[in-house]
Amino acid sequence: EKAGFDHFMLKEIYEQPKAYRNTMMGRVAADGRSVHLKEIGMTPEQIRAIRKVHIVACGTAYHAGLVGKTAIESLARIPVETDVASEYRYRSPIITPDTLVIVVSQSGETADTLAALREAKRCGARVLAITNVVGSSVSREADDVMITQAGPEIAVASTKAYTSQLIAFYLLGLYLADTLGTRSREEITEVLTAMQQLPEQVESILEQANVLKQIAENMAKHNNLFFIGRGVDFAVAQEGSLKLKEISYIHSEAYAAGELKHGTLALIEEGIPVIAVITQEALYEKTLSNIKEVKARGAHVLGIVNAGMEVEVAKSVDEVFTIPKTSALITSALSVVPLQLISYYASLARGNDVDKPRNLAKSVTVE
Ligand code: F6R
Q1: Is the ipTM of this complex over 0.95?
Q2: Closest residue (by CA) to atom 6 of ligand 1?
Q3: What lines the ligand 1 site, CB under 6 Å?
Q4: Quick one: which of 2, 41, 231, 324 has the most CB atoms within 10 Å?
Q5: Dihedrals φ, ψ of 119, to 5°?
Q6: Which atom, in ligand 1's list, is nearest to the CA of 157?
Q7: Is 286 a catalytic residue?
Q8: What this chain does, per the record (predicted)?
């Protein structure tokens, strides 16, 4: 059942190209110029009436929601807040009938996420669920349901479900942008064209798994490390850090690259590994200057960069891992893949049970 892979997690990492294709299938028009989301029952008029979006989820799904915030805000220009479901209800969120609440849940059974969904409905908001499980509680109770076509996810550490959630958010952002007229047909087509190339680009990252294994084995010798990034790269850094903690039990923190100097820089000492995600050209100079700050304190920096920037970034870091170039907006669907593999191989190097990490369950049905 593991189809020749040593672990479900590895199998699921390798299933991502298929998961991307399946999640896009039937949702991108044949001419590649628009998105159809038949599962969304909102009329164009109802979409135009949305004043704000709340994205609510837990763990890895929350991290997908952070990327989703950027996608929706930048494409559709609707203000978005992303919240951890276990915090959302207790901050007296301002949920009004013109709020679209998006809940994200692989299993569709997470208690906190379900409770947030119910609270949103009680306040009269429309609820859209992004879930991987047809017939799950979340899918039954939401008004609209986008199913991520990742296929069953067995490993406790979520990989293909997360990346499929990203694909769902990109499609949703484009769909909203098209309806609202915030992006031109050319811009929408450009992103969709880039999205169609993602599966092959993921394959090309997977082909370099051995390089990442080597990197991970070195990292597994350390007890602390940092992930840094700006914008969506920070969102991916947070996911990379969670994945590493979850299965390798190595302590790590994800930091917004520019925020380090406000305290955390004190923890940087000789030899500490820092993984810097640097894919956004507009932010890259700034992140490089943050890298110089940690390098000056002896950190060993791995840069995850996109093709075209690798030569320049190589001058400031110790190691570079290059991912293929794509549209800036959707790079997270690529940049997270090396981080998943690093976690996997670090866990393996430490002799852990990769698929069933200690203290954790696949589906969390308690609050
Ligand atoms: C981490 C992980 C968890 C889940 C979280 C939410 O790898 O899998 O953080 O993402 O428990 O689960 P779902 O998406 O089923 O609501």
Answers
A1: yes
A2: 58
A3: 58-61, 105-107, 110, 113, 157-158, 246, 363-364
A4: 231
A5: -65, -40
A6: 7
A7: no
A8: Catalyzes the first step in hexosamine metabolism, converting fructose-6P into glucosamine-6P using glutamine as a nitrogen source.
Distance 179 CA to ligand 1 centre (A): 31
Best residue for ligand 1 mutational test, from 13, 83, 106 (most atoms within 8 Å of Cβ)? 106
The SS3 assignment for 274 reads strand
Is residue 181 exposed (0-12), middle (13-18) or buried (19+ Cβ within 10 Å)? exposed
Segments in the chain forming alpha helices (H): 8-14, 16-24, 44-48, 59-76, 85-88, 111-122, 137-141, 160-180, 185-206, 209-219, 232-248, 284-295, 310-314, 332-349
Task: Give the pLDDT mean for 289-308.
Answer: 96
Residues in the chain: 367
pLDDT of residue 365: 85
CA–centroid distance, 79 to ligand 1, in Å, is: 25
Amino acid identity, position 327? S
- Residue 303 pairs in a beta bridge with 276, 320
Lookup result for tokens 């990492």: 13
| Number of other CB atoms surrounding residue 20 within 10 Å | 25
Nearest CA to ligand 1 atom 3: 59
Determine the atom of ligand 1 nearest the C-alpha atom of 58: 6
201-238 tens-digit pLDDT: 999 999 999 999 999 999 999 999 999 999 999 999 99
Q: Which residues pair with 253 in a beta bridge?
A: 226
From the CA of 106, how far away is ligand 1's center (Å)? 7
Distance (angstroms) between ligand 1 centre and the Cα of 58 equals 6
Cα 120 to Cα 122: distance, rounded to the nearest angstrom: 5
The pLDDT tens digits of the residues spanning 150-159 come to 999 999 999 9
3-state secondary structure of 261: helix
State the sign of the Cα–Cα–Cα–Cα dihedral 190, 165, 341, 154.
Answer: negative
- Residue tagged 């949702």 (tokens): 27
